[in-house]
Amino acid sequence: MKIATFNINGVKARIEALTAWLDATQPDVAVLQEIKSVDEGFPREIFEDMGYNVETHGQKGFNGVAILSKFPLEDVTRGLPGGAGAGREGVDDEEARYIEATVVGLKPVRICGLYLPNGNPAPGPKFAYKLRWMERLQARAQDLLSHEEVALLCGDYNIIPQAEDAARPDAWRDDALFRLDSREAFRRILNLGFTEAFRSREAGSGHYSFWDYQAGAWEKNNGIRIDHFLLTPQCADLLNDCWIEKDVRGREKPSDHVPVWVDLAA
DNA sequence: ATGGTCGCCGAGCGA
User: What does strand B contact on the protein, if contact means CB under 7 A?
Assistant: First the structure.
């Protein structure tokens, strides 16, 4: 089963590039972030006509996540648990950043698609929201481990895990994507027992999943690696491969992110 | 270089 996570930065602006990419690469599952669309505005028929089952969790203008799957999608849930009690009533659930579904291929896999808050400027209320959101993600991640599920959490984490995941780490030192407290929160989740799929297969530097639209970042290869797959042990046992599809960034009207893939024996 | 570029919508925010 080939699964790609892809922050598409707006489904309406990306529909041509996205359908061409699906046609060419044929993922079994595409986990999308920043659809920037309400559920009713998502062009689901286009993807259904390509053979995909479609589940979305959108909102007006910003954020929004979706899962496209050639296999059936079961037990779909929208929103990260713990929002109502995490701060003021319901506040954490106003942003559509999380969706889960079980993909039933050779073996069922629980797929968790996430768009983790950016958190800038830090410190401040947006950064506090990011850290609170990561605490909730950690709780959900612990549940998946405790139940020994074949599961993965993938998406735009807005976290640069290590210095080798940025072309210019010094430029990100105080940014919400690379601050020590952000990286510590990410490591707390990872250290519960997850495998970070890409890092497990590639120890080196210079592999990025995002290049800013500004200041010629792509042309200078001034990138960062912020789109990740975290696998439970039961899922890591099925990992065949993980790679970043870098060349997508150089195509016509690209997203600022590129797809990251895993191939599972599932 | 106190900007630079996108996408949401149809001004200014978020990234």
Answer: A 9-14, 36-37, 41, 60-62, 117-118, 120, 126, 213-215, 253
